[in-house]
TrEMBL record:
Signal peptide: 1-20
A Pfam family matched in the record: Peptidase_S9
Reactions performed catalytically: Hydrolysis of Pro-|-Xaa >> Ala-|-Xaa in oligopeptides
Domain Peptidase S9 prolyl oligopeptidase catalytic: 482-694
Listed EC numbers: 3.4.21.26
Residue ranges of every copy of the Peptidase S9A N-terminal domain listed in the record: 25-424
Keywords: Hydrolase, Protease, Serine protease, Signal
Protein name, as recorded: prolyl oligopeptidase
Family from the record: Belongs to the peptidase S9A family.
SUPFAM superfamilies: alpha/beta-Hydrolases, Peptidase/esterase 'gauge' domain
């Protein structure tokens, strides 16, 4: 062991801070220097990448002691938590899905750690519990990730994850008795579950060597499992030993006539995928799209022996095509529109398409040949999801929500084209006390960027309102308007919540995404900075009342922005962020992000990444009050990113910043909170940290 590393045990036990003067646990440095295309880059905290070492565990313990001692001294922290619990404590239901005479749905009574899966015969039958994940672990951190029912409705294959990890274990349930069969399937990750006949397809990796939570995942395989057999008897359906960083998924059409194989190669920086099919009874897959390139393709459904396919091939906003395998011909069914296609589902012999128009949903119903029949009238401007179902369905369900509109489930009758409320939540507060407006601000290069701003009616624009600005900005992911009960206690105190739809997302299609990826990533940071400047200019807040928040790619966003503009805000929350842009691809499935970021193995990409990497651009200047958050079971963005970033932040800025620079490491949790209790606790700590560092005293809670 390196001598400097052996000092960790003593160093991390350095005296804790007094509230008048910050003193952080010192973090040992090692003499690690890497050569990137002729540039020497020091990595003194490399040892924190070892999630299994006693030294890392001791460092985490010391940091958590510091952070939670600080949080416990905030006088209204517990009252905030209690208020969040009060507003979150209402019954939450998912839209039902039908399998034969049974309707399956999820229900959470209010504060249950995990939602419970129910079923009932018909829409008026008595609900019965199918699976209650709350009974599977003492702390309620075992999650039901998927539950897929066989075509005959006799069995279900389902997967569970533990402690927030992305790894899943698979099981088979006999739905007649609601009991498990004997088999257990391990090392499932990035997988669909698709039934065909007496078994199902799934994707997995070989058992990892080294740390299960940090080791690089390669050789993604598709397997077939027959009911009643052990995993050792499973049939390997597909792997590619020449391309170990490819993803392979398999889905089966509703009539089980075709198995569809999807192959993507993001490890080589390609955005698209290849597509293959295999007819029932055939031995080998036949190509629909033989090579992975820059375009994506997905099968929506089959019409006899032909396929409806959504693609962005020469259509940045996507279109729908029909492919005939017999003669390899393609036909346009739905051409590209000015708005990006958000989703395509079939049910009841109809094609349901949802589009985004200025970040709000529009839904249209088409005949299977593409003819437009009608638009679904939605309750207002917001986000809509659902509409999928079976070919013989007479009605489907969808869920509508917005910032001040709680998720409400509607039943849409296909014949009459009418929507009716199926169920809506009963709340203990009045969401109409708040309002949302959408504005468009100007970014650094003149681009108009949309932003939603939500606040309590009657808000005074006096620059003194605690304001929380959130964004994501990456991976073609849209940040859509949606209701969150946990936001209510913040808004009740006169807080302002702003959601900026910055570039890198899918709000305006692939063009919007491409404008914020790879060598254009700085546009994302500029958009976020401009959003903060707009809020300040319009007197929602000043820089002493502005907080920045983002998670995952959004954590990278916050880390990069406070490096570039530490004066912009008073408080920052980089959550589960990708902070080491030079080594992200060396952990779990991080290599899969290369199309988005580029890769430091490439000289041009390295130069770009090195310019903004949060870890490598920390300055010895005063930073905003910062609380980094991560979790011990995050095996998507491994916590080493946050560990190394925090160590560097404390070392470089700790002596010149009067604001706290802390890290909060959750236990038995992952990339997102692993249960309701942990989500509420983290939210309460974020609000408490925000208010306290802004000098804001909440009104009666």
């Amino acid at each position: 062991m390196n001598k400097s590393l052996s000092l960790v045990s003593a160093l991390v036990l350095a005296p804790m801070l007094s509230m008048a003067q910050w003193k952080y646990p010192e973090t040992a440095k090692v003499n690690q220097v890497d050569n990137y295309h002729g540039t020497q880059v020091a990595d003194p905290y490399r040892w924190l990448e070892d999630d299994r070492s006693a030294e890392t565990a001791q460092w985490v313990k010391a940091q958590n002691t510091l952070t939670f001692d600080y949080l416990e001294k905030i006088p209204y922290r517990n009252a905030l938590k209690k208020r969040i619990e009060e507003v979150f404590n209402y019954t939450k239901l998912s839209a039902p899905s039908r399998k034969g005479e049974w309707f399956y749905f999820y229900k959470n009574n209010g504060l249950q750690n995990q939602s419970v899966l129910y079923r009932q015969k018909g829409l008026n039958g008595a609900p019965e519990v199918v699976l209650d994940p709350n009974q599977l672990s003492p702390d309620g951190t075992t999650r039901l990730q998927s539950f897929v029912i066989s075509k005959d409705g006799k069995y279900a294959a389902y997967t569970l994850s533990k402690g927030g990890s992305d790894w899943q274990d698979g099981y088979v349930m006999d739905l007649t008795t609601k009991t498990n069969l004997s088999e257990k399937i391990e090392w499932i990750k990035v997988s669909t579950i698709s039934w065909q006949g007496n078994g199902f397809y799934y994707s997995r990796y070989p058992k990892p060597e080294g740390s299960a939570l940090a080791a690089k995942n390669e050789n993604h395989q598709v397997w077939f499992h027959r009911v009643g057999t052990s995993q050792s008897d499973d049939q390997l359906v597909y792997q590619d030993l020449k391309n170990l960083q490819r993803f392979h998924y398999l889905q089966v059409t509703e009539d089980e006539k075709f198995a569809i194989l999807i192959v993507s190669d993001r490890g080589k920086g390609k955005e698209g995928n290849a597509l293959f099919y295999k007819k029932a009874g055939q031995e080998s897959f036949q190509p629909i799209v033989a090579e992975v390139d820059k375009f994506s393709y997905s099968v929506i459904d089959n019409i006899g022996d032909e396929f409806l396919i959504e693609t962005n091939e020469n259509a940045q906003n996507s279109k729908i095509l029909r492919f005939n395998p017999a003669n390899k011909s393609w036909k346009v069914v739905i051409p590209e529109k000015a708005e990006p296609l958000q989703g395509a589902r079939t049910a009841g012999g109809k094609l349901f398409l949802s589009y985004l128009k200025d970040v709000t949903t529009r839904v249209y119903v088409h005949a299977m040949d593409g003819k437009l029949e009608n638009e679904v009238k939605l309750p207002g401007l917001g986000t809509c999801s659902g509409f999928g179902g079976n070919a013989d369905d007479k009605f489907v369900f969808y869920t509508f929500t917005s910032f001040t509109f709680p998720p409400t489930i509607y039943r849409y009758d296909i014949a009459t084209k009418k929507s009716t409320v199926f169920t809506k939540p009963e709340l203990s507060f009045d969401p109409s006390a708040f309002e949302t407006k959408q504005i468009f601000y100007t970014s650094k290069d003149g681009t108009k960027v949309p932003m939603f701003i939500t606040y309590k009616k009657g808000l005074q624009l006096n620059s003194q309102n605690p304001t929380l600005l959130y964004a994501y900005g990456g991976f073609n992911v849209s940040s859509l308007p949606a209701f969150s009960a946990t936001l209510i206690p913040f808004l009740e105190q006169g807080g302002v919540y702003a959601l900026a739809n910055i570039r890198g997302g899918a709000e305006y299609g692939e063009k919007w995404h491409e404008a914020g990826m790879k060598l254009k990533k700085q546009n994302v940071f500029d958009d976020f900075i401009a959003a903060g400047e707009y809020l300040i200019a319009q007197k929602y807040c000043d820089n002493q009342h502005l907080a920045l928040r983002g998670g995952s790619n959004g954590g990278l966003l916050v880390g990069a922005v406070i490096n570039q503009r530490p004066d912009l805000c008073k408080v920052a929350f980089p959550q589960v962020g990708v902070m080491d842009m030079l080594r992200y691809h060396k952990f779990t499935i991080g290599w899969n992000w290369s199309p988005e970021y580029g890769n430091s193995d490439d000289a041009t990409d390295f130069k770009n990444l090195y310019q903004y990497s949060p870890l490598h651009n920390i300055k010895s200047v005063a930073y905003p009050a910062t609380m980094v958050t991560t979790a011990d079971h995050d095996d998507r963005v491994v916590p080493a990113h946050s560990f190394k970033y925090t160590a560097e932040l404390q070392a470089k800025a700790g002596s010149v910043s009067s604001n706290p620079l802390l890290i909060r490491v959750d236990v038995n949790s992952g990339h997102g909170a692993s249960n309701t209790a942990k989500s509420i606790e983290q939210t309460a700590d974020i609000y408490a940290f925000l208010f306290y560092n802004m000098g804001f005293v909440p009104k009666k809670l």
